[in-house]
Design brief:
single chain, mainly alpha, MetI-like fold, 2 domains, 10 helices, 0% strand
């Protein structure tokens, strides 16, 4: 029943968006080539699927995303767990991180292209930068907020490293880490598209740029729709992983 209700809500939301979209076309004088109607975009989506173009670009984008995001998540969590316990070292590094964090990964693109050339590497590096800082900062914050009672209990039970980190600190800090993973996956997916628009000849971002150059805005909108759907599915995947980990630890997941 709950699933049916959610499905109906999604269906109603899609109908509302399509209706507003079509209404905007009817009340404006913009040409269809510049403001494609839903039917044209639907045809573009079908053409991308039937000729295999979508799956070629999607496979490339997902490969780049997984390499960049997973490497950023693993390194940021490990480093965050360590720095969260080394307060003096974090006090030194924190100002540097706070200066670098607000800088858009795209701002580094001239250096990234010069250092790594064109192809997969620039997009992967941009994804890494986009995901690394939010995951690192939330991990450090989560470690700092671990209840001292847990640490005192571990000390009384003579629990030493690495068991202290894996059995006590990481599970206690996991809610904050999970929040960072959610933020990181969103920013990484956004900048994946930006990275593919700069130094790549394939991927969903390149598909949008190439379609724009050909003045095929119906394909541009189709690419945007696919990007949004993929981002939603990736976020849902992270949430399922979070709930699975919480279940392993006997923690009730928050819906």
């Amino acid at each position: 029943m709950k699933v049916l209700k959610k499905t109906m809500n999604i269906f109603i939301g899609i109908i509302i968006v399509l209706s507003l979209w079509q209404f905007a076309i009817l009340v404006t004088d913009i040409e269809e080539a510049l403001f494609p109607p839903p039917i044209n975009v639907a045809k573009a989506i079908v053409s991308l699927i039937t000729d295999g173009t979508l799956f070629i670009h999607l496979n490339v984008s997902l490969m780049r995303f997984l390499i960049g995001y997973l490497s950023a998540a693993i390194s940021a969590v490990i480093l965050g767990l360590i720095l969260g316990r080394l307060q003096r070292l974090w006090d030194i590094l924190d100002p540097i991180v706070q200066v670098l964090r607000p800088v858009s990964p795209i701002a580094w693109s001239p250096f990234i292209v010069l250092w790594f050339g064109i192809g997969n590497a620039p997009a992967i590096v941009i994804i890494f930068i986009a995901a690394f800082f939010p995951i690192l900062l939330t991990t450090v914050a989560g470690v700092k907020k671990v209840d001292t009672t847990y640490l005192k209990l571990a000390q009384n039970l003579e629990i030493k490293q690495p068991h202290l980190m894996t059995k006590i600190i990481f599970p206690a800090a996991f809610p904050a880490i999970a929040s960072g993973l959610h933020i990181g996956i969103g920013t990484a997916w956004i900048f994946l598209v930006s990275g593919e628009m700069i130094g790549s000849q394939s991927g969903l971002g390149y598909l949008i740029i190439d379609s724009r150059n050909l003045l095929r805005l119906d394909l541009v909108v189709a690419g945007i729709i696919f990007i949004g759907i993929c981002g939603l599915l990736l976020d849902k995947g992270i949430r399922l992983l979070e709930r699975w980990i919480e279940k392993q630890w006997g923690v009730s997941p928050n819906d």
